[in-house]
């Protein structure tokens, strides 16, 4: 799809066609959304779809998960006129942090960190990442926010797969994603 072309009719998820499949092997995500971010209308429509369910909700801050969640998270924070908090992979923050181990989509064990002075008790946080595949990364972010006294106001991602971890998150938190129900099975099966 042309990065300048805007379809005459733009239904929810039209921009998903901009994503490209993995050509590098099993250590990479199965689909790359970065072309979607290059298309100005696609990025705007994706953000509108992600944030629509949270209109009128009390959100104090947006947190994005390292690394691609920084793009959507920062854009969502700017759209909502809220601050942005980066939840980082271990070893990147030079301040006091709280850490949480997790397994990512490839099954690799990792450690995530959050600065301890960013969240005060009761602060309502919208968590944003580009993808929730197994749910391990998002669940670690949820645990960090809640351990520091924050409240998870919602979870937003381009896609939330119906994996065991994805279902766990969707059963407990208000969630938003961009995949229309008719396409969800294809995303769940990585097609």
TrEMBL record:
Which E.C. number(s) belong to this protein? Answer: 2.4.2.7
For this protein, the record's InterPro entries field holds: Adenine_PRTase, PRTase-like, PRTase_dom
Name the record gives this protein? adenine phosphoribosyltransferase
- Principal localization reads cytoplasm
Query: Which PANTHER family does the entry mention?
Result: ADENINE PHOSPHORIBOSYLTRANSFERASE, PHOSPHORIBOSYLTRANSFERASE DOMAIN-CONTAINING PROTEIN
Q: What is the lineage of its organism?
A: Eukaryota, Metazoa, Chordata, Craniata, Vertebrata
Q: Name one GO biological process term.
A: purine ribonucleoside salvage
Q: Which GO terms describe its cellular component?
A: cytoplasm
> Under which main EC class is this enzyme filed?
transferase
Location relative to the cell: Cytoplasm
